[in-house]
Structure formats: C-alpha cells, structure tokens
Design brief:
Strands 1, 2, 3, 4, 5, 6, 7, 8, 9, 10 and 11 form an eleven-stranded antiparallel sheet that branches. Strands 12, 13, 14, 15, 16, 17, 18, 19 and 20 form a nine-stranded antiparallel sheet that branches. The chain folds into two domains: 150 residues, Jelly Rolls (Sandwich); 132 residues, Sandwich (Jelly Rolls). It is globular. The chain is built from one helix and 20 strands.
Length: 292
C-alpha cells in the first residue's frame, strides 16, 4: 500500500520562485496551541509542535507547506537540531532532522521570557494524495510550525527594475536578506523609462527620523509622461523588523504597495513622496513585458 503522502526533502524557496504558487494558511485542529510570530510587519500564527504536535484535516490531491522554527531560550546553544515527524492517517510516518540558528528578523509577538527567540525558518513540502486525510506534525523538542496549501491562483512573475535617477539608494536588511530601496522626493523623484502597455507594482516605504514616533499620513505620487496618474494615501508606522544598517538616523516604515498602469508606448515614470516627506521605493514589472 502506497503512503498517502510523499515528503519532498528539499528547501522550498527555489521551487516557489519557479512555480509562483500562492499559498493560503491552514489552521490546526482542536487542541492546537497557537503562538504568534512577528516577521517583517506580519504576524502569522504558528503552532507548538513538541509532544503530540498538531493534527490537520486535508482534502487531496493537494500540497502542504510546513514552515518550521525552533524555540531558543536564553541559555540555548548557537545551533539547535530538531527532529520533525510527519504521519498521515496513522502510518509510520517520516522523520527529518534539521538544524537552525536564532533568527535575526523574527520575534515572538506579546510577552515572552527574557532571551527567548524563534529560530530561522525551514520549509518542507508534502504531496497529499486524493481523499480525506489526517496529517499529524510533531517534533522532539520545542519548536513551532505554520501550515499552508495552494490557493489555486498563481502570481505573475515579476522582475525588479533599477531606476535611472533617484535622491539616494538605501540598503535594507529584511528577512535576513539585503534589498535596495530608492528614495524619491519633490526635488529628485525616482525616475525610469518603461514601454507599455504594462502594470508596474511599486513597494513603498516612508522613511522615519530615528526620533520620530507614532503614525504619519503621507502620499505617494506617480507621474507617467509628466501627468499625475497615481496619488496613493497611506498612514504608516515605523517597521519593527526592517532596518538600514548603514543609516543609523533613519528607520524604514512598514512596507506599502500600489500599482501604476502604463499605457501603450515609451514613457518616463516619476515616483516620489508628496510634500516634505521622503519615500523609498522598489519597482517591479511583469517579466513578460521586459522585451517591449
């Protein structure tokens, strides 16, 4: 008899980049012990996996993604090794050992004992056979897991664009990776040329002085061929998880998003923050439109 689930023992990130799957969260069953993790201004729900772990009811065929994080105490060693066991409908299951270090970007939401930190994330994919199944996930030491499955929709593959002019470039650390943001204001907007028709997706972030607190209202402005086409209002707070390591006097705000519809033809695009604010931007174009 074939097992109902086949566990793919491979890091998932490269596969996700290729198949562009959109994942939706799966809640654990009755008796699960939820815990909230703060990651890059998002607060996904994870579940305690030590001991009996959690049970999930799934209808196949589908895929299950498990995001795993070890629990580090103040006196934990630099690296922890955790054994993950996954069973389906009471079968013998499969076990995989993985090692992790303390995350540099994730934190527990709410009050936790001093020195406790979540570990870096490991992801695994399981193929679920046709029919109704009960999947149980557990670990041999303190760890948490979050679960998701494909939603049925797919993301459009996009490529980040480098502008031709901008006020300054800021390197940010987020999710343990470096990303470059381009600052645009009234005097020096972020500028680039694009051939339409296409739709640009823009990530936007207000820059805060280190002394600034609270919520700030601001507006991102985009022009196409010199004509204002987007004025998107936001109310932003400082980010809890992002930082500019080379700019100690600046703190990035939470990440916002808007789109720019570019008509047919070649156009100059200008993006900036309105008024005296300084906004930082990243611009993405559908990869299929790059050759226009």
């Amino acid at each position: 008899m074939k097992p109902a689930i086949f566990l793919i023992l491979a890091l998932a990130a490269p596969a996700y980049a290729q198949d562009r799957t959109v994942w939706k969260s799966v809640a654990a069953g009755e008796g699960a012990r939820p815990v909230v993790v703060r990651i890059a201004d998002k607060t996904p729900t994870y579940y305690e996996l030590e001991g009996d772990g959690v049970a999930l009811r799934l209808t196949g065929p589908t895929r299950l993604r498990i995001s795993l994080r070890a629990r580090f105490r103040e006196d934990s060693p630099e690296t922890l090794t955790t054994r993950l066991t996954v069973t389906c409908d009471g079968d013998e299951g499969r076990t995989k050992a993985y090692s992790s270090k303390r995350s540099t970007t994730a934190a527990w939401a709410g009050e936790v004992p001093a020195g406790e930190k979540p570990g870096g994330r490991d992801e695994w994919i399981l193929d679920v056979a046709e029919g109704e199944h009960t999947v149980r996930v557990r670990t041999d030491r303190p760890a948490v897991g979050a679960f998701s499955q494909p939603s049925g929709s797919r993301r459009s593959l996009r490529t980040e664009m480098t502008p031709t002019a901008f006020r300054s470039a800021l390197v940010e650390i987020s999710k343990e990776r470096e990303r470059t943001w381009y600052v645009g204001d009234g005097e020096k907007p972020v500028t680039l040329e694009v051939t339409g028709p296409t739709t640009l997706r823009v990530s936007a972030s207000l820059n805060f002085d280190a002394s600034m607190r609270g919520e700030i209202a601001w507006t991102a402005v985009a022009k196409v061929g010199g004509a204002p086409i987007v004025e998107k209002a936001f109310r932003s707070k400082r980010s809890h998880s992002r930082s500019y390591p080379d700019e100690k006097e600046l703190v990035p705000g939470v990440e916002e998003e808007f789109e720019i519809a570019v008509p047919e033809g070649r156009h100059a695009i200008e993006i900036r923050a309105a008024g005296s604010h300084a906004g930082a931007f990243r611009i993405f174009i559908p990869t299929k439109d790059l050759k226009k």
